[in-house]
Design goal:
single chain, 456 residues, alpha/beta, 9-stranded mixed sheet, 12 strands
C-alpha cells in the first residue's frame, strides 16, 4: 500500500490524482492551491474523488472524529501477532524431555540446556526443567520466569489440509476449518458485538498493505503501513499551517458528505500530529531493534497506546508472508526470525510497563511443522503449533495445554504433533475475560469453549 491520502485534490479534470482519491501526496497539477479557494469550485473539482474514496473503504479514517486531546476512555487492548508460514513450535519451545524429538531431528534439533557437548550459545534456554526456548528466544525467558508470559503448545485448528491459505483463513475467521462458517473475521465480529458508539476511527488498526481476514466485517478498521503515511504533502511554497488552516476553513461548515469527510480526516491528522510517531521515545529504557519491520510496527502500536487515541485492536504480521515456511535449510533462517520475534516482543512489554495491565498480546501461527526433518534439512507442514500470550491477567510461567507426546503411537496418522487445544479456547477466554465481551456465540459461532486457564 502506498501513501494514504486525503480526498482533497484532483488533476483539474475531475479525476482523482494518481494513486487513488486520497490525501494529497504531491503538488497538484498547475498552480498551487489558493489560500482562499472557492468552496463551490473546490467541491465540484473533488466531489467524485471524495465519493470514490469513501466507497472504497480502504480506510475508516473519515468515519468518526478522533479525540484530539488524548483523553479517550482507556479500554482493554488486544494485539494480534500472526507468524505466517507455519512456525515450527517444536524448535521455538523445545520439549527437551522427549527423546523422540532428538531422534527425529538429528540435524535441526535445538540442544538441551544440559547438553554440555554443545556450545552454550547453541543450547536451548531453560524454562522449567522440561521446556526450553530456542536460544534466539532468550529475551522472552525473563518474562516467562516472572509469570508474564504464557505458552500454549500442541494447539491449532481443526484444519487438516496443511494448506497455508486454508489454515490461515480458518484461524482468522475463528472457525474450525476454512469451509465451516462465516466469511467475516473473528476480531471483526468481536468489534461489532461490543459498544462502538463514539469510537475512534483508530479503534482497530492493521499494520499491513491489505486488510487482514481477522478484521473482515468490522465497520471501523483501518489498514496502513505506517502512521507516518497519513500526512499532507504540500503544494510547492505553501507552509503546512497555511494549507491546514485553509482546508479547515473550507470544511468548517456543511452537512454534506464531502464536508464531513474533510473535517473528520483533518481531525485524524491533528491527532497523529499530536502523538508524533516519528519522534516517539520508548519508556522504561526499552530499545526496539533497528531495521526490524516487526519491531517498528510494535513501536507504532506503543505510540498509539501512549497517545490514547482510542485504540482497541492492533494486528501485525511477523516478517511478512511465509517466512516461517522452513522446508529447506531450516537452521539458516529460523534463528534470525525467532530472534526478531523475541526482541520485538520483549522491547514492547518493557516499553509499556504498567500499561500492560490493560493489554493482551497473542502471537500465533496457522500450523506447526512435521516432527521428522526432511531430506532438505527442513520441516514440512504439520499440525500442532504454539501460541504465546502476554499482558494483564496472564497466567504466565507455564506451558499450558495437554501434551500428546512425540512417539509414533502418539502422533497423528501423518506423523504430526496432535492438536489437543483448539486455538479458539484460548482466544475466547481472552475475549470474555480480558476484552469483557460475553457474546462468545457471535464471535465464535457454533463453538463451545473449554477453559484453558491462560488468562483471568
Amino acid at each position: 500500500m502506498g501513501t494514504e491520502r486525503l480526498p482533497l485534490g484532483c488533476d483539474g479534470t475531475g479525476r482523482p490524482l494518481e494513486g487513488g482519491p486520497n490525501i494529497v501526496s504531491r503538488p497538484l497539477h498547475g498552480d498551487p492551491i489558493s489560500i482562499h479557494p472557492s468552496r463551490r469550485a473546490f467541491l465540484l473539482g473533488t466531489a467524485l474523488s471524495v465519493v470514490g474514496w469513501m466507497n472504497t473503504r480502504n480506510s475508516a479514517l473519515a468515519d468518526v472524529v478522533v479525540n484530539g486531546k488524548g483523553d479517550a476512555p482507556k479500554k482493554d487492548i488486544f494485539i494480534s501477532v500472526f507468524m505466517r508460514g507455519g512456525a515450527d513450535g517444536l524448535n521455538l519451545v523445545v520439549p527437551t524431555f522427549e527423546d523422540a524429538y532428538y531422534r527425529k531431528r538429528p540435524s535441526i534439533n535445538v540442544a538441551s540446556p544440559k547438553n554440555m557437548k554443545v556450545d552454550a550459545a547453541a543450547r536451548a534456554v531453560d524454562l522449567d526443567g522440561r521446556w526450553a526456548l530456542h536460544p534466539m528466544m532468550a529475551p522472552l525467558q525473563p518474562l516467562f520466569k516472572e509469570g508474564k508470559l504464557a505458552i500454549v503448545h500442541a494447539c491449532g485448528s481443526g484444519d487438516q489440509s496443511r494448506s497455508h491459505f486454508e489454515a490461515m483463513l480458518a484461524m482468522e475467521r475463528g472457525l474450525a476449518t476454512e469451509e465451516s462458517g462465516s466469511a467475516s473475521g473473528w476480531v471483526g465480529r468481536h468489534l461489532d458485538s461490543t459498544d462502538h458508539s463514539g469510537s475512534s476511527p483508530l479503534r482497530a488498526v492493521a499494520f499491513s498493505n491489505v486488510m487482514p481476514d481477522l478484521l473482515r466485517g468490522a465497520t471501523d478498521a483501518t489498514a496502513l503501513n505506517s502512521l507516518s503515511d497519513f500526512k499532507l504533502a504540500l503544494p510547492q511554497g505553501m507552509p503546512e499551517r497555511d494549507l491546514h488552516a485553509a482546508l479547515k476553513n473550507l470544511y468548517n461548515t456543511g452537512s454534506d458528505a464531502v464536508s464531513i469527510a474533510g473535517r473528520e480526516t483533518l481531525a485524524v491528522l491533528d491527532t497523529l500530529n499530536r502523538i508524533d510517531p516519528d519522534d516517539y521515545a520508548p519508556a522504561n529504557g526499552a530499545v526496539y531493534p533497528k531495521d526490524s519491520q516487526f519491531a517498528t510496527g510494535l513501536k507504532q502500536v506503543a505510540c498509539m497506546i501512549r497517545g490514547n487515541v482510542g485504540l482497541e485492536v492492533a494486528c501485525l504480521d511477523h516478517r511478512g508472508p511465509y517466512l516461517w515456511d522452513t522446508h529447506v535449510a531450516q537452521g539458516t533462517v529460523f534463528g534470525a526470525q525467532a530472534g526478531d520475534l523475541a526482541a520485538g516482543l520483549a522491547a514492547f512489554v518493557k516499553d509499556m510497563g504498567s500499561e500492560m495491565g490493560r493489554i493482551t498480546l497473542v502471537a500465533m501461527t496457522e500450523f506447526g511443522r512435521r516432527l521428522q526433518e526432511n531430506s532438505g534439512i527442513g520441516t514440512d507442514h504439520g499440525r500442532g503449533g504454539v501460541m504465546f500470550v502476554t499482558g494483564g491477567g496472564t497466567h504466565g510461567g507455564k506451558v499450558h495445554g495437554t501434551w500428546p507426546g512425540l512417539e509414533d503411537r502418539q502422533l497423528d496418522e501423518v506423523g504430526d504433533l496432535r492438536v489437543t487445544t483448539d486455538y479458539r479456547n484460548v482466544l475466547s477466554e481472552i475475549v470474555q475475560l480480558r476484552l469483557k465481551n460475553n457474546h462468545i456465540d457471535k464471535v465464535f459461532p457454533d463453538f463451545t469453549p473449554q477453559p484453558v486457564g491462560v488468562v483471568s
